[in-house]
Amino acid sequence: MKYLNEYRNKERAEILIEAIRRQVTRPWHIMEVCGGQTHAIARYRLEELLPQEITLLHGPGCPVCVTPEATIDYALELAMQPDVIFTSFGDMMRVPGSREDLLRIKARGADIRMLYSPLDAVEIAASHPDKRVVFFAIGFETTAPVHLAAVKEAHRRQLSNFYLLLSLFTVPAVIEAILSEPICRIDGFLLAGHVCAIAGYRDYQPIATKYHTPMVVTGFEPVDLLYGIYRCITQLETSACSVENAYKRVVTEDGNRQARALIDEMFEPCDQEWRGIGIIPKSGFRMKHSEWEINPANHSSKRDERNNGDKRVSSDCIAGSIMRGLKQVTDCPHFCTDCTPLHPIGAPMVSPEGVCAAYYNFK
What we know:
The protein is an alpha/beta fold and 363 residues long. It contains 17 helices and 11 strands. It folds into 2 domains: 1-313, HypD, alpha/beta domain 2 (Rossmann fold); 319-362, no CATH class. Helix 3 (35-43) packs parallel to helix 17. The two termini are 27 Å apart.
């Protein structure tokens, strides 16, 4: 419990809050890019403890929330095919497509199984050689090596009926896309410690320099987050713009070299649609050897880089504006009224890492 208790220590948190108060002299907007961090901020009421000059914005740090509607629709089509066993993490089951979600068609008889690991899907493929077993592989750089480990295992066991449906995203690309928008309120970023633990943080420095925006690699406990905010404010108040590692007990500059080598071996960058944001060039992964991947046909179509993504989301859901830092959850007229975890309008109310779910559960 050492690394939990000391980073949830009330006295340490109070010292950091006071240090932040002494440091800040003007309004600043800081965005965290991780759903786990968003939930910790809400759970520990950190926004209420910070000086009023600091506004926290909640970025596109939940892969469930940014998986495009078209990909979910394609997943539904696959899952309804009689020769398919469709497998997925549980948090994708209730994310709405254009009409339905995986849980509803499972209730109608589709063979859909909730798993804790893609390696479990490999076991299912080995036990059902007459079926195509598809795993819904979602995530950022953090989970990419786990999905590839499953592919490696399927290859080792000479299974020809195991496939991935990919919905993978890369964080540096979306940060640059947000910063490049004509209206951008963000002064600094808290980077996701678990993403940087895999990918390192070298790729962020050119972006920080180009947009003169400080970025701080941050953990997930309240003391971690407050320290990350303190380091970010320190840079902002001194007009610095470097990438700083405030999570050294976990993260190194180069990340996990073995995991990165696996990603480089088996993945290549591709354009990716982000739900509520649009298509961002080179912001996703696809397999170099496509025999392991099932592709939604619409992914190959050419669409407008920005605008079409917003059109794919319910007009009642403002998640895209929230994830770009333009609005807050409390700006949504449907929050806690028409939109609840039992009756979600948008993905951020469904996912355990979604910002709307965080505000609903804790605030």
